[in-house]
Amino acid sequence: LALHGPEQLLKREYFKNLTDALTQKHGEVQVAEFDGKSATLADVFDELRTFSLMDNYKVVVVNDAEQFVTTHREALERYAQSPVDHATLVLRADTWHKGNLDKHIAKVGAVIKCDAMKQPQARDWLIKRATQEYQRKLTPDAAMTLVQRVGGSLMLLDGELSKLALLVDAKEPITVELIDMVVGKGSEEQAYAVQETILQSLVSRGGSGGHAIEKVHEIVDLSRQPDVLVAYFIADLVRKLYLGLAMKKQGAPEGVIAREMKQWGPRQRLFIDVLRKLDERTAGRLFDQIVRADVRAKSGFGDSMRNLECFCAVLADEVH
Length: 320
Known about the structure:
By secondary structure, the protein is an alpha/beta fold. It is built from 16 helices and 7 strands. The strands form 2 sheets. A 5-stranded parallel β-sheet has the order 2-3-4-1-5, with helices on both faces. It has a two-stranded parallel ribbon with strand order 6-7. Strand 2, helix 2 (41-49) and strand 3 form a beta-alpha-beta unit. The N and C termini lie far apart (53 Å).
């Protein structure tokens, strides 16, 4: 199988379809991945031709395969004419040059182009994705609005869709009005403003749960931000802290962590200060807690603002 083109999410979906089909036919499937920029032909062919010790069917993947295919095109053409029957070779590449290899692959497998979709296609994909992946209803008008707002990248569209799915329960549709509120041009700035306010409340002298709760009420009452949206922004902050601590555990410098988490200017120092006061396990537990609180609120268990207040109190206690 050759998957080529710039749309990474489509490659991921086609690859999942392949592994699901092979698992259904052969049972458990063993996946081995190679970096096409450094892997040798011998590495890949040895993996393909060697039987698994567990007698599993193999899927051998070459990522970033552009140079690998260019260098070993003739050998790959010969292999495609007589592939092994206990493994599948998958070539994933952003760019692809057509040739005889395509014809040989097509006889035993498939060559699939993964390009960005046009607006009507992306709209239909979003509606289907909302139902199948997130169990939410996305109206056609809302789907087209999202495409026009974000663009044709399925990765970006799916990221925004996952955010929107958190903000409605299964009985409510995702509407144009919600998209205008959450995916508006200033939505990222709104998120950063909320997160910076919470960070300030956590690192301020004498900062406490009461101080954090007071700041949340200021955001909701004075800025007129919906409490469910504020909860999402705070959950995103805790997620960034958790990821930052995971990077720190692997030896990443604090400056690199802050940049990766898109923390700039004064917010960067606040973020690092809070990062130093938490550990990875605690941050993971806090993230699980705010996600559960959000689910409870959407399921009718408790008031969403009350749940947010309780979480901010716990967050402040953990930081201090």
